[in-house]
Write a structure and sequence with these properties.
338 residues; alpha/beta; Rossmann fold; 7-stranded parallel β-sheet; 41% helix; 18% strand; binds nicotinamide-adenine-dinucleotide
Length: 338
């Protein structure tokens, strides 16, 4: 290539970067577990990011091109900010996320996850948005099935948390259709993994996920070992937080020629049993862990595994970090850094 052509190429690249850089993405709940990973990725990809997080569960960090609005996401301050900055794309992660707690305190969950979300959508529906990406959950499927679950599987949530997510999806879908913007409701399966370099890991109290219990406790109780699975213990789908962030980034970049509304599973497509996780964790992360078999928990589904073909086809994502050995390595590093 001649030096003139090289120079032209460089200028073009700079121009594209600058154009790209001016786009600000609003991320609610951006200082939570997933948010920390996602916001870091978006900044790396040269977006500006406005994080709306009231820090009820989040941990603030500072970076170039990152603004923090310490507010409830449904506040009018946020609406005015979106208007002023001409923001067109929003990623809504903010929510309470503990399904067990939601059974004991349903009002708390419907208030934050649904009623505040409704207020937020009412506030922003006339702002000419291009797209909203909404963090939904596999909890919408309730008790799951022995087979992989695709998006057409019956939605029968068993917790107020799951129901608040399902209703959030529906509300978003109707408003997006009416106002002609694209919406993506991503049904996340169990998000796992950590990245010590950016402080993304189990730093808050929202997580009652298996890895967080394994990290914290000296004795780990397997809740029942006579389920109808290969080794008798429950099976779940673990998707790496970095793969989830990549999926959101790819959806964000997608050209929206005709606005559409999508519901997409976001899981690894693989099932891993509780017993296998506990044994591998003991081997690779915490050698002195004691593993015992405890009682079955009420309402614990036997198996929940995603069929992830729809999202894979839409954005060509491979979920390459969503395997047990990579996830355990990340927790090992996290554990050593604490
Ligand atoms: N972690 C998982 O395995 C998982 C699985 C399925 C779905 N999800 C969904 O993904 C999203 C992110 O999950 P996470 O694991 O990062 O949770 P998290 O609790 O770590 O993050 C949520 C963030 O939202 C903030 N927040 C909550 N309510 C707010 C409000 N009213 N106004 C402003 N900020 C508020 C919290 O301070 C926190 O930083 C949630 O919507 C959750 O339901 C997570």
């Amino acid at each position: 290539m001649t030096s003139k052509k090289l120079m032209e190429k460089k200028l073009k690249k700079n121009f594209i970067m600058k154009q790209h850089k001016i786009e600000t993405i609003l991320v609610t709940g951006g200082f939570g577990y997933l948010g920390t990973s996602l916001v870091n990725l978006l900044l790396k990809k040269n977006y500006k990011v406005a994080v709306v997080d009231n820090l009820c569960n989040g941990k603030k960090f500072k970076k170039k091109n990152l603004i923090h609005l310490n507010q409830n996401f449904s506040s009018k301050v946020i609406t005015n900010f979106i208007k002023k900055k001409n923001i067109k794309k929003i990623i809504h992660l903010a929510a309470y996320i503990d399904a067990e707690e939601s059974v004991n305190n349903p009002v708390k969950y419907f208030q934050n996850n649904l009623i505040e979300f409704k207020k937020f959508l009412e506030n922003i529906k006339n702002l000419n948005l291009k797209k909203i990406i909404f963090a939904s959950s596999a909890a919408v499927y309730g008790n799951g099935s022995k087979k992989k679950i695709d998006e057409r599987f019956d939605t029968k949530p068993v917790s107020p948390y799951g129901l608040s997510k399902l209703q959030g999806e529906k509300l978003l879908g109707f408003i997006a259709k009416k106002k002609s913007f694209s919406s993506y409701s991503l049904r996340f399966f169990n998000i796992a993994g950590a990245n010590v370099n950016i402080g993304c890991g189990p730093f808050n109290k929202s997580y009652k996920h298996i890895f967080n219990i394994l990290l914290k406790k000296k004795i780990f109780f397997i809740n029942g070992n006579n389920y109808d699975t290969k080794d008798g213990t429950c099976v779940r789908d673990y998707v790496n937080v970095s793969d989830v962030s990549e999926a959101i980034y790819k959806l964000l970049k997608r050209n929206e020629i005709n606005p559409n509304n999508y519901i997409l599973n976001c899981g690894s497509g693989k099932g891993i049993s509780v017993k296998l996780i506990a044994n591998e964790f003991k081997k690779k992360v915490k050698n002195d862990l004691l593993i015992k078999v405890g009682k079955k928990r009420k309402g614990d589904p036997t198996s929940i595994i995603s069929n992830n073909l729809k999202i894979k086809k839409l954005i060509s994502i491979k979920f390459k970090n969503s395997n047990l050995s990579k996830i355990l390595n990340e927790y090992d590093q996290w554990n050593k850094s604490k």
